[in-house]
Write a structure and sequence with these properties.
Blueprint: H1 2-9, H2 13-21, H3 29-32, H4 42-50, E1 54-59, H5 67-86, E2 91-95, H6 106-122, E3 127-129, H7 137-148, E4 154-159, H8 165-175, E5 179-182, H9 197-214, E6 219-221, H10 225-237, E7 246-250, H11 255-263, E8 268-274, H12 279-288, H13 293-301
Helix pairs in contact: 1-12, 5-6, 6-7, 8-9, 9-10
Length: about 300
């Protein structure tokens, strides 16, 4: 119930205004967000690189409603690639297609994504297309395959709570695409997604093993110690080299576990979000771990 409520709150403009007005950007949000401008991410990224971890920078934003906003996003990513190069950061980029105009038209989002991939190639950059709610899954994958024939410097994300994900994984493996595997953080109906955590976890383990055996450098994005232990055992039992995949975790979450995996010889990439549109992202992180809600309430009550 708490998770569903928090996910509904993530789409509430009224609550968003209240939270931002009460200074959350200086409190709890800073635990998960590296800053509001790309320049503010430098120290965080360099600290992670110094800990032998690579980074994915995520410029937060989604669901733009005007072509000019989508164009502005493309221009921002052009600057972001140059920023990463100029600062010699060991980082790549992740984005959402609704930030590029998917709510306006598929063709606009595809056109803007193509421009971003062409610019990324100039800097030898890899780009990850994040997956959004299930209403966007088919359209996102359709655009991915449309561009895949001409561009190989990008990958996508599959959410294991969706029933369709096993079929999607097999198709992406056959294409040779790079996949980031996540459980999923949106409030989905039981008609399209497993309602029980047990089933989601079982799906995650099964699809992880498929990707480790047959995939192209998969990203295993999880903080779940049980799933990580199962993955490590599977890797050892099947003599899978640690350079054939990487773990991914979120900025501000389980730093102890990140360090442990690196010390054990595994590759670790940390997903570092930034930007002014942090509210929805923060609420989805709370929904994943509602115990953090008390921390938020204490910060608000101090104002």
């Amino acid at each position: 119930m708490t998770r569903a409520l928090l996910l509904r709150m993530s789409n509430s403009p009224t609550i968003e205004r209240f939270v931002k007005k009460n200074g959350m950007s200086a409190g709890f949000a800073r635990r998960f967000i590296a800053g509001e401008r790309m320049e503010e991410t430098v120290d965080s990224v360099r600290q992670l690189n110094a800990r032998e971890m690579t980074v994915t920078l995520d410029y937060l934003g989604e669901n733009v409603s005007r072509p000019e906003e989508a164009h502005d996003s493309v221009e921002y990513y052009r600057r972001l690639f140059k920023f990463i190069f100029d600062n010699r950061l060991d980082a790549n980029v992740s984005l959402k297609l609704t930030q590029l105009g998917l709510d306006i038209s598929d063709s606009l989002a595809a056109q803007n994504m193509r421009l971003i991939l062409e610019e990324a190639a100039k800097y030898d950059q890899f780009v990850r297309i994040d997956m959004e709610g299930s209403d966007y899954t088919e359209r996102t994958l359709s655009i991915f395959y449309e561009l895949w024939g001409d561009h190989k410097n990008f990958g996508t994300v599959i959410q294991t709570y969706l029933y369709r994900s096993e079929t999607d994984i097999h198709r992406l493996i056959d294409a040779g695409a790079r996949v980031r595997l996540v459980k999923g953080a949106y409030n989905e109906p039981k008609e399209v997604a497993f309602p029980d955590k047990k089933d989601v976890d079982e799906s995650y383990v099964k699809l992880t093993q498929e990707l480790l055996l047959k995939g192209n450098y998969p990203a295993i994005a999880t903080h779940d110690p049980v799933i990580i232990a199962a993955t490590n055992s599977f890797v050892a039992d099947n003599q899978i080299s640690v350079d054939r995949f990487e773990y991914q975790m979120l900025f501000g979450v389980r730093r102890d576990l990140q360090n442990k995996l690196v010390s054990d010889g595994f590759r670790m990439r940390v997903y570092v979000p930034f930007g002014t549109q942090w509210y929805g992202y923060m609420m989805r992180r709370l929904a994943e771990r509602p115990t953090n809600l008390w921390f938020v309430l204490k910060n608000l009550l101090r104002k």
